[in-house]
Amino acid sequence: MAVGIVTFTSDYGWEDEFVGVCHGVMLSISPEVRIVDLHHSIARHDVRHGAVVLEQSVPYMPDAVHLAVVDPSVGSERRAIAVETAEGAVLVGPDNGLLLPAADACGGIAAAYSLEEARFLLSPVSRTFQGRDVFAPASAHLASGVPAAELGPPAEVSSLVRLEIPEAWEHDDHLHAEVLQVDRFGNLQLNFDGARLKKIGLSESSSLEVRLEGHRLQIHHGATFADVPAGDFVLVEDSYKHLSLAINKGDAGAKLRAASGSTVIVGPINT
C-alpha cells in the first residue's frame, strides 16, 4: 500500500548537498512523495543518538516510510535493510542498530529484508554515499507502494544488529544514569523517568543532588523551566517523559561541559 510519506533522519547536516540530493533521488522516483525532514543534525557517526531520536519521534509520525542514515561503516559488509513493524511502519537504513529501538516502539519487528534488488537501487552504488544510492531510492519505492519483500531477500530477525540504549540503575537511594542527548537549548535528557525516581522514594522531593562531570549540584525538581529564576538549574520531565537537566533560559550542556554518554548520579540532598 502506498503511504506517500518518507520521514528522513541523518547525520548529514545542512552544510553540504547530501540531504538535497537524497530528496532529489526520492522525488525523481516518486514525484508525489512528501518528505518530512525529521533531524539532520544527529551527532556525526553517533548511531545511539540517531536511535534515540528515531525511537522518540516515530510514534508521532503519520503512516510513513522512515528513512534513517547514520552510517559510519558505509561501504563495509554491514547490510542495508528495510524493517516492517507490527504496527505497519517501515524503517529503512543500515543494519547497525539504528532502526531497532524505533521498531520496538512501533510494536516490534514483523519482518526484515536486505536491500539487494538492483532495480530498486541506483547504479552504480557508491561505497561512500549509500544514502543516495540505496536507502533513498528504496524508501521512495516503498512509499509509492512497492512491497518490502520485493526489495531483497528476507533477513533473519535474530541476526539484526541490536543497539541497547542504556537504562539508569538504582543503588540504595541513588540513580546511576547517563545523558542520552543534548538538545539545541542545552537541555540534558537523562535515561530515566519519574517512575524510576518514585522507585527510590525521590519523586516528591523538591530538590535533588546531581553529580555530573565533576560537579555536585543541588537542583530544584520542578514541573517547568520557569519554576526557577533565569540562570538557575532545574530538573524537569521532558515531552518524552524523561527527566532532563536544564537551565532556565540557559545552556546546561555548555555550563557543565556535558555530552551524550556523560554519567550522572541523582540522589537526595545530604544535610
Number of strands: 14
N-to-C CA distance: 62 Å
In spatial order, strands of the major sheet run 8-9-13-12-11-10-14
- Work out the helicity level: 10-25%
Determine the CATH superfamily of the largest domain: S-adenosyl-l-methionine hydroxide adenosyltransferase, N-terminal
Number of helices: 6
Give an overview of the whole structure.
The protein has 271 residues and is an alpha+beta fold. It folds into two domains: 5-159, Rossmann fold; 169-267, Bacterial fluorinating enzyme like (Elongation Factor Tu (Ef-tu), domain 3, Beta Barrel), CATH 2.40.30.90. Helix content is 20%, strand content 30%. It has six helices and 14 strands. The chain has helices spanning 18-29, 47-57, 100-105, 130-143, 194-199, 252-256, and strands spanning 5-10, 34-39, 65-69, 80-85, 90-94, 109-114, 169-171, 174-182, 188-193, 207-212, 215-221, 233-237, 242-247, 263-267. The chain has a seven-stranded mixed β-barrel. A hairpin with a 4-residue loop joins β12 (233-237) and β13 (242-247). α1 (18-29) runs parallel beside α4. The longest helix is centred in the middle third of the chain and has 14 residues, at 130-143. The chain is elongated and about 65 Å long.
Task: Provide a quick synopsis of the model.
This protein has 271 residues and is of the alpha+beta class. Helices cover 20% and strands 30% of the residues.
Q: Mind sketching the topology for me?
A:
Layout: E1 5-10, H1 18-29, E2 34-39, H2 47-57, E3 65-69, E4 80-85, E5 90-94, H3 100-105, E6 109-114, H4 130-143, E7 169-171, E8 174-182, E9 188-193, H5 194-199, E10 207-212, E11 215-221, E12 233-237, E13 242-247, H6 252-256, E14 263-267
Parallel strand pairs: 1-2, 1-3, 3-5, 11-12
Antiparallel strand pairs: 4-5, 4-6, 7-8, 8-9, 8-14, 9-13, 10-11, 10-14, 12-13
Helix pairs in contact: 1-4
